[in-house]
């Protein structure tokens, strides 16, 4: 096993691809996106069932090495400030096969 950082981001569905691009620009090659997540935050309830899709959120899960983390966080921060959302970082273990 290898120690890594787990990155979880929930933000506007229209911006989740931008978050994925940030990861790729910083050398992270893999991620998982879950579209149409629902929940409640500072901006109220996000149900994702509106016809326009304007108020839909998506969830992104990825990992990186600790050395990559500061630059990734600083690149994601403006997206979250502009569009709302959360970014959670935690320690994790990568089970290599």
Give the structure's gist in a few sentences.
By secondary structure, this protein is of the alpha+beta class.
Describe what this molecule looks like in 3D.
With 97 residues, the chain is an alpha+beta fold. It has two helices and six strands. Helix 1 (16-25) runs antiparallel to helix 2 (69-83). The protein starts with a strand and ends with a strand. The model has no long low-confidence stretch (mean pLDDT 91).
Relative strand content:
35-45%
Sheet with the most strands: spatial strand order? 2-5-1-6
The termini sit apart by 9 Å
Mean pLDDT: 91
Shape: elongated
Spans of at least 5 consecutive residues whose pLDDT stays below 50 are none
The helicity comes to: 25-40%
Q: From the structure provided, what is the oligomeric state, counting identical versus distinct chains? A: single chain
- Major sheet description: 4 strands, antiparallel
Quickly count the helices: 2
Rg, alpha carbons: 14 Å
Structural class: alpha+beta
Total strands: the figure is 6
Q: Helix and strand succession?
A: EHEEEEHE
Jot down its keywords.
97 residues; alpha+beta; 2 helices
SSE topology sketch:
Elements: E1 2-12, H1 16-25, E2 31-37, E3 39-41, E4 44-46, E5 57-64, H2 69-83, E6 85-94
Antiparallel strand pairs: 1-5, 1-6, 2-5, 3-4
Helix pairs in contact: 1-2
């Amino acid at each position: 096993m290898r120690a890594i950082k787990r990155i979880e981001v929930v933000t506007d569905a229209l911006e989740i691809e931008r978050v994925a691009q940030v990861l790729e620009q910083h050398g992270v090659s893999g991620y998982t996106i879950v579209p149409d997540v629902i929940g409640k935050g500072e901006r109220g309830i996000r149900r994702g069932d509106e016809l326009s899709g304007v108020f839909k959120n998506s969830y992104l899960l990825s990992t990186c090495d600790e050395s990559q983390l500061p630059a990734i966080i600083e690149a994601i921060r403006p997206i979250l400030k502009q569009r709302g959302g959360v970014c959670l970082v935690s320690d994790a273990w990568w089970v290599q096969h």
